[in-house]
Design a protein that fits this description.
With 104 residues, this protein is mainly β. The protein has 1 helix and 7 strands. The chain has one domain.
Length: 104
């Protein structure tokens, strides 16, 4: 499964099962995207009392890849597959650098 490397910065609902966490990443153009998602979907090792920031990974599916004028490998991904996840602003399609992706 493909994931976008992200950073978990805080609990948003630590008491709610299974716990919700805020995650962030910068896209290929430097725009920051914020997600609020269930801990098991983005960071299995986060639990109440955990210290932040921590590494997180947002599940996604690749839809396109190309090189820009600088030769960077840009990958378009959707977070609607394999699990329906959206940024807090509702976006679900992002362009990231190839090195921002983890294939596990």
């Amino acid at each position: 499964m493909l994931h976008i490397k992200a950073t978990a910065v805080r609990f948003t609902e630590a008491e709610a099962y299974p716990g919700w966490v805020e995650c962030r990443f910068l896209d290929a153009f430097g725009k920051e995207w914020i997600f609020e998602e269930k801990c098991p979907y983005v960071a299995e090792q986060i639990f109440p009392g955990a210290q932040f920031p921590q590494d997180a990974a947002i599940p996604c599916e690749q839809t396109d890849e190309h090189k820009d004028a600088e030769g960077r490998s840009l990958v378009t991904v959707t977070t609607l597959r394999p699990i329906w996840i959206e940024a807090i602003t509702g976006e679900s399609v992002f362009v990231v650098l190839r090195e921002q992706l983890i294939d596990s």
